[in-house]
Amino acid sequence: MDASGEQAVRQVLRGLHYPAERWQVITQAELYGADVGTRERLHELPTRRYRSCTDVAAELDELST
C-alpha cells in the first residue's frame, strides 16, 4: 500500500484504540462513514487482533497482491 493509501486508512481508523480485533476495525470504519470500497476491503481482513493502523494497512497490502 502506498503512503496515500495508508494515510486514507489512518483517517478512517482515527480514534480506534489498539490492539483491536477485526470487528472493531470494521465497526470504526462504518462509524466514520467509510466508502463502500474501503468497507469491502476491510471485510476481507483475516479475523485476528491488529496491533496498529500500520498493521491493518500492511494486511490490506498483502491482500492486494
What can you see in these coordinates?
The protein has 65 residues and is mainly alpha-helical. It has one domain. Helix content is 63%, strand content 6%. The protein has helices spanning 3-12, 22-32, 36-43, 53-64; strands spanning 20-21, 49-50. A two-stranded antiparallel sheet has the order 1-2. Helix 1 (3-12) crosses helix 4 (53-64) and helix 2 (22-32) packs antiparallel against helix 3 (36-43). The protein is globular, with a radius of gyration of 10 Å. The relative contact order is 0.23.
How is this structure best summarized?
With 65 residues, this protein is mostly helical. 63% of the residues lie in helices and 6% in strands. The longest helix is centred in the last third of the chain and has 12 residues, at 53-64.
* Residue-averaged pLDDT: 90
What characteristic shape results from the CA principal axes? globular
Number of helical stretches of at least 4 residues: 4
Largest sheet: 2 strands, antiparallel
Contiguous low-pLDDT stretches (5 residues minimum) are none
Q: What is the number of strand segments?
A: 2
Give the helix proportion (percent range): 55-70%
- What pattern of helices and strands is seen along the backbone? HEHHEH
Structural Rg: 10 Å
Quote the distance from N terminus to C terminus: 10 Å
Oligomer category:
single chain
The domain count comes to: 1
